[in-house]
Design brief:
Layout lengths: L1 E6 L4 E9 L10 E10 L1 H5 L6 H26 L9 E7 L3 H18 L3 E5 H7 L3 E2 L12 E6 L4 E8 L12 E8 L5 H11 L7 H8 L24 H11 L6 H30 L3 E5 L6 H11 L4 E2 L3 H4 L4 H9 L8
Helix pairs in contact: 2-3, 4-11, 5-6, 5-7, 5-8, 6-8, 8-9
The structure holds 5'-O-[(R)-(carboxyoxy)(hydroxy)phosphoryl]adenosine (KG4) and zinc ion.
Length: about 350
């Protein structure tokens, strides 16, 4: 099964062609990336220090046809004839910025009608989770273990999920039968939002997460005491807005030296990482997890990756390649291939 996928939920215009790998039972559920094109609007939104939905939507309109064309051409070069080879068109339909989402969905639905292919709606968070199944070739195929604990950390979400696999269905194409259960999530800001807002307080341009991580490399995380909100709450809920407020009062009215800025960046990063790691390790223990998955834009953070890997000990940790942690369309294609769906809130 080969899918053209489109993602426009926030500030990346993305298209990709992916296909289910069918060679062995172990790798059957892996999804091979034939092309993945991402046009970022980060520079555009740096001017307003955040995403203005209408401006994002306009930029998606301008980029979308070129991005789809590039993804289709690149995949066609690697394999067969596209679009004749494409079985379905998928697009992110929720959650995200409404005016931005409709651009990708409309483009996908129009292509589905024009090419006579089915349209598959995909939840953006299912996409982030399905990114753990993406591979570039048969050699890099991964065999997942269940139950898995999934930490999704992005600009809009911080969630802990339990992922189970239902008994295999008769037909290989009948869906993988995954089942997701939400264990907890943030009560206010997402982890990525905390990174971005603290980065802004330190004068870094939008989106500040990666820049804050770079600044933190030169800082000492022990220099500044910052809170670890809800770290002892004994549940899987998070809160990051208090941390942002603590940094606000710390920097307010002060002229910081370069070293002080780096120390605050390192301390803030450590505080966020401490909470994420502690809750994920607890969730893995409570649920008897056989594997942990770390995904979403903040999973590109090297400190979080290495701290979580250490803390989990012998438990395997699967982290998608950084290019598939931040928003992309290959992950949306993977969720469509795997039929991974987010359950309705009960
Ligand atoms: O998943 P994503 O691309 O978009 C959303 O679905 O929100 O995540 C974007 C978030 C932003 O908050 C960005 O600052 C953060 O991921 N991010 C990072 C890093 N790279 C991206 N945060 C910390 N360290 C990074 N290296
Ligand atoms: Zn995302």
């Amino acid at each position: 099964m080969r899918i053209l996928a489109i993602e426009t939920s926030c500030d990346e215009t993305a298209a990709a062609v992916v296909e289910r790998m069918t060679n062995t039972p172990e790798t059957r559920s892996n999804v091979r990336v034939l092309s993945s094109v991402v046009a970022s609007q980060a520079d555009l939104h740096a001017r307003t220090a955040g995403v203005v939905p209408e401006i994002a939507a306009r930029a998606h309109v301008e980029a979308i046809t070129f991005v789809i064309d590039d993804a289709v051409r690149e995949a066609g070069g690697k394999r067969g004839h596209v679009p004749g080879d494409i079985d379905a068109i998928a697009a992110t339909t929720e959650p995200g910025l409404r005016p931005a989402l409709v651009i990708g969905e409309t483009a996908a639905r129009a292509l589905a009608v024009a090419w006579g292919k089915p349209f598959i709606p995909v939840n953006h968070l299912a996409g982030h989770i399905a990114a753990a199944w993406l591979v570039s070739d048969a050699q890099s195929a991964v065999s997942h273990r269940f139950p898995a604990i999934v930490l999704v950390v992005s600009g809009g979400h911080t969630q802990l999920w339990r992922l189970d696999r239902r008994p295999a269905k008769a037909s290989a194409e009948a869906g993988e039968g995954f089942q997701l259960r939400l264990l907890g999530q943030t009560r206010d800001d997402a982890a990525g939002e905390a990174f971005d807002k603290i980065a802004r307080l330190l004068g870094l341009p939008y989106p500040g997460g990666a820049a804050l991580a770079r600044l933190a490399e030169r800082g000492d995380a022990c220099e500044v005491a910052l809170p670890r909100p809800m770290i002892d709450s004994k549940d899987f809920y998070f809160s990051f807005s208090g941390l942002k407020t603590a940094v606000f009062y710390l920097v307010r009215g002060r002229k910081l030296s370069e070293q002080e800025r780096a120390d605050i960046a390192a301390s803030a990063q450590e505080a966020i990482v401490d909470v994420l790691v502690a809750k994920t390790v607890d969730a893995a223990a409570r649920e008897g997890a056989a594997e942990a998955i770390l995904t979403g834009g903040v999973a590109a953070n090297a400190r979080l990756r290495s701290r979580l890997r250490d803390a989990l000990g012998a438990l395997p940790l699967v982290v998608p390649h950084p290019q598939y942690c931040t928003d992309n369309a290959a992950m949306i294609g993977a969720a469509a291939v795997l039929k991974l769906e987010i359950p309705m809130p009960s």
